[in-house]
Design brief:
Elements (H helix, E strand, L loop, with lengths): L1 H16 L6 E6 L5 E3 L4 E8 L5 E8 L2 E6 L4 E5 L7 E11 L4 E11 L8 E4 L2 E9 L4 E5 L26 H9 L9 H7 L14 H9 L1 H10 L11 E6 L5 E4 L3 E3 L1
Length: 262
């Protein structure tokens, strides 16, 4: 009988000694319910503590998808512009202690669109430019690159070939007509220069259509000032712009104070 009591005491003692407290975790920033523009850089600061051990790792999840995992304090990370879409997002911390016990804490944030005006500087991820066209009340639009070049529309041997780059309004349509031809974009220097900007995850750079260039001309003063404010070479109404729009099999539209064939 004494032996049975002794064994029970030992089992209870072992069970008591193996108890592990759950770690605690919380967000230091941002605050729950806060709104940010899609051009903002977000600094995420998290806190985790374990009374009877140590924190092994913290995971940050965005909408249930792991964004990053940190194993050393300070538990801090950055979300860059463009990484979160416009709308509501749930940020969740998952803290794990040195014995595998976990805890969670969540907040909600809202991403709202930045409202642009013509002449604004645009910089999201690696894409930079000057806004020359807006839509959706300024939430969307189109930009000009920060640099420009003086190149031929097409090499001489291709200047008498109709390429079906005929849209006055859609430069991307004209760009695709060149890309889908059998002649190779290297024979269209102005198009290739634009296409070379589409590296990595960047897409969308193309030679503008003639009506896009008209929009640039209409806002030349404010756009030129935006370049100057950034310390960049600018242009004015004496600058000749190629458009991506063909005028005929041997001409394309350009602008030099007014529309003309080039």
């Amino acid at each position: 009988m004494r032996r049975i009591i002794y064994l029970i005491i030992i089992v209870l003692a072992i069970s008591f000694l193996s108890c592990n407290k759950t770690p605690s975790c919380s967000f230091l920033s941002p605050q729950d319910g806060k709104s940010f523009q899609n051009t903002d850089t977000l600094t995420i600061e998290m806190k985790a503590e374990d009374e009877d051990g140590s924190i092994a790792s913290i995971k940050l999840l965005i909408d249930n998808n792991t964004y990053t995992e940190l194993t050393h304090s300070p538990f801090k990370t950055t979300i860059f512009p463009g990484e979160l879409t416009v709308g509501n997002h749930i940020l969740t911390i998952q803290a794990t202690d040195n014995k595998g016990e976990t805890s969670e804490s969540s907040i909600s944030i809202t991403i709202i669109p930045h409202i642009y005006a013509i002449g604004d500087y645009y910089h999201v991820n690696t894409v930079e430019g000057i806004v020359y066209r807006i839509s959706n009340s300024g939430a969307n639009g189109m930009i000009l690159s920060l640099d420009f070049n003086n190149l031929q529309w097409a090499n001489d041997e291709f200047c008498a070939i109709l390429m079906n780059a005929s849209s006055d309004d859609d430069g991307l349509y004209n760009y695709n007509a060149i890309m889908e031809s059998n002649f190779g974009i290297q024979n269209f220097p102005a198009f290739k220069w634009c296409n070379d900007k589409n590296t990595g995850s960047v897409t969308g750079w193309h030679l503008p259509a003639i009506n896009d260039i008209q929009l640039v001309s209409d806002s030349m003063d404010v756009i030129s000032k935006a370049y100057t404010n950034l310390g960049l070479s600018s242009f004015d109404n004496s600058t000749i712009f190629w458009s991506s729009t063909e005028a005929s099999g041997i001409n394309a539209w350009g602008m030099y104070n007014h529309f003309q064939n080039e």
